[in-house]
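Blinded run. Sample ID left blank on purpose so nobody reads anything into the name before looking at the predicted structure. Input follows.
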Amino acid sequence: MACLPDRLFGPPPPADARSRRTADAVSLLSCAVTAALLFAGLAGPDDPLANPLPLSVWLLGWILMTPAAAVFCDPWPWLNPWSGLLRILRLGHAPPFRLPGTLGHSIAVLQLGYLVWIDLISLHATDPERLARHLAGYLLVNGAGMALFGTGDWMRRAEPLSVLFRLLSALSPFCLRRGQLRLCLPGARALGRPPLRPGEVAFILLLLAAGTFDGVASTFRWLAAIGINPLEFPGRSAVMLPNTLGLAAAVLILAGAFLGALALGRRLAGQAVPMAAFAGRAASSLLPIYAAYLLSHFAARIVMDLQYLWKTASDPLGRGWDLFGTASYFPSQSLFNTAAGVHLIWSAQVAAITAGHAVAVLTAHGAALRCFGTGRRAMRAGLPLAVLMVLYTWLGLALLSVPRI
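Blinded prediction complete.
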């Protein structure tokens, strides 16, 4: 009979093969919707709350899809706008070139850094026309990469959204067992996979550091530290350089804290487990923290932007249309104007962070079990990382409670 840790952290059976035709049809639909959004970004209103492109890219494509992938499954094999079109054109399955193995996941890390910089620091995140140009460039680079180096290999190692949602989907508590949907321990699939590569670890560290810095950069304390009066905020152009340096510092600090916790854990365990293997196992435990913080940090924005997207869908080009009868809808902030509404939002934020960190601690313990075996060694090895996660929980709750612009 399998021991308790093996039953808890053992990998679930692999999912059934998805229908290729269905995946291609959804991908082609995604391609058409993406083209329409790009056109709306270039030809539609300049107001980011009246143009569907910024709302769709950041709200649907990033904020909501991240926790959805962590809870349910990886949506990107269906929603990738290139995979269906390339299959029809018979490109990407017998590519003329091979992506060098020495590159690892470095292309995905660089592209993630580019997306994070556009979102958090640049002046283009909410400018529909400029965002459309960035998105078009991003799509062209990755479409060409899939055609030249192979759809599978490029999506697995170079395209950041593919990497992101694949990593997050391993946290899902749902799995298929003998054709039936079953529950498993969140994170079990991640622990059942081989240890992550160094590039994937760097990808996760950049992801979590960017999410944390996004919360820090809008606080009064950060603005005061870089010499900006938060009550007279001059705009993003005045803080681009200090925020770029702050983001880089956040990545280095988190990487140092994470690797330092692992090194101390190895020492406490008294067992010579390779650092790369331990980091490759433990890095997945940071993903629940990221997904939970993203959901809680943007809770208020989700409430408002969904309403603006509902209104904008009827008149995406600002031509006075009313395609779905929602053009006259007026987004309401009434939820934030009552004590009960604010309490509801705050409770949901705290619940999300608490649940995410609970899953993170369980996943970290599972990683220690995989590397150091059962008993005291695994507990000692995981203790510094657990302390780091408790501190991260405190930081996440603190960032939600402090004044911000």
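Unblinding after everyone has recorded impressions. The chain has 18 helices and two strands.
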